[in-house]
């Protein structure tokens, strides 16, 4: 049986550790904070993240990174996107070269505008890489509710290896060779979920949310395709699938953060209130920069950027979006010239 190391004991890392341990793998879960380690070891819970869900006794809980990764066949990065580089650096001297690195963070690196596969590859260039993404709230996976995700890798045999390791009766894993498309779908849907939250916070209705979701996947696809992603990937689990779950779920931190912004909270107050990773905030900045660089139109992302970073009033942003130049619906993704 493979040995699996999970680095990051937040909601997602803990839920995946439970899933893998239930399948019989030897799992080590690495956390940094002493009081969290003590709670997980003594009570076998991780209350702040997963409430009363029990952590199986077989899971090795450790704050020693060497112990966590040195014999691992698979190392799962379950931290925020901005922490992945730190984690990669911290395991570089201990992890086996053939160990498969599985990234589950859904974001982009601030400052470099890199995708997580690029960040990991810049530090752990010898290790095979797989991204695991899709509509999967940790709270529901921890309650063993049927969930589907996708494993993507440039080496499809590694994606299939991870598919075999993670699949069980309530967690169905598909594969996809389009790493870029899967990564961008996962990162950019957080921006749209944040936007849907703003709409909820403002008190607008279902029509408005459907508009943001539909035009949101359009602009995600437009940027993703311009960077080399497959259009079909954005119609899949890591694209529209994850967009639907994040935009409609009460579990979503991105959507909940948007609700607070829509209600008039400051960004600082919002982050304090959520106290967990809100990837969409950084992703907005990176996507805004990438769209500018590639000359791709992303009106929703642009308005969210203005709200977050230029103090634009949210109602003004809605007005700006509604008042844009009139357009045909399908021309922008598929480049169909409607007048032909
Ligand atoms: N929660 C979900 O439902 C879910 C599902 C799929 C993907 N994700 C993605 O997974 C990533 C992590 O999300 P999460 O929900 O677990 O976040 P979280 O806020 O619940 O937990 C992140 C954990 O990482 C720890 N951490 C931060 N830096 C670290 C480091 N350098 N070394 C070790 N631990 C470190 C933090 O202390 C925290 O416990 C995010 O990118 C998120 O988008 C989350
Ligand atoms: O809680 P969120 O908004 O970070 O979303 C969690 C997952 O990405 C849902 O698939």
TrEMBL record:
Primary subcellular site in the record, as a coarse category: cytoplasm
PROSITE patterns: NAD_G3PDH
Domain of life per record: Bacteria
E.C. numbers: 1.1.1.94
Record's keyword annotation contains Transmembrane helix: no
Keywords, ordered alphabetically: Cytoplasm, Lipid biosynthesis, Lipid metabolism, NAD, NADP, Nucleotide-binding, Oxidoreductase, Phospholipid biosynthesis, Phospholipid metabolism
Pfam family, one: NAD_Gly3P_dh_N
Residue span(s) of domain Glycerol-3-phosphate dehydrogenase NAD-dependent N-terminal: 3-157
Binding locations of sn-glycerol 3-phosphate: 106, 134, 136, 189, 242, 252-254
Alphabetized InterPro entries for the sequence: 6-PGluconate_DH-like_C_sf (IPR008927), 6PGD_dom2 (IPR013328), G3P_DH_NAD-dep (IPR006168), G3P_DH_NAD-dep_C (IPR006109), G3P_DH_NAD-dep_N (IPR011128), NAD(P)-bd_dom_sf (IPR036291)
EC class of the enzyme, as a word: oxidoreductase
Pathway stated in the Swiss-Prot or TrEMBL entry: Membrane lipid metabolism; glycerophospholipid metabolism
Residues the entry annotates as binding NADPH: 11-12, 32-33, 49, 106, 138, 253, 277, 279
Subcellular location: Cytoplasm
Location of the Glycerol-3-phosphate dehydrogenase NAD-dependent C-terminal domain: 178-318
Recorded GO MF terms: glycerol-3-phosphate dehydrogenase [NAD(P)+] activity
Reactions mediated catalytically: sn-glycerol 3-phosphate + NADP(+) = dihydroxyacetone phosphate + NADPH + H(+); sn-glycerol 3-phosphate + NAD(+) = dihydroxyacetone phosphate + NADH + H(+)
Residues of the active site: 189
HAMAP family: NAD_Glyc3P_dehydrog (MF_00394)
Functional note: Catalyzes the reduction of the glycolytic intermediate dihydroxyacetone phosphate (DHAP) to sn-glycerol 3-phosphate (G3P), the key precursor for phospholipid synthesis.
Matching PANTHER family: GLYCEROL-3-PHOSPHATE DEHYDROGENASE, GLYCEROL-3-PHOSPHATE DEHYDROGENASE [NAD(+)] 2, CHLOROPLASTIC
Similarity-based family: Belongs to the NAD-dependent glycerol-3-phosphate dehydrogenase family.
Protein name listed in UniProt: Glycerol-3-phosphate dehydrogenase [NAD(P)+]
Recorded name of the encoding gene: gpsA
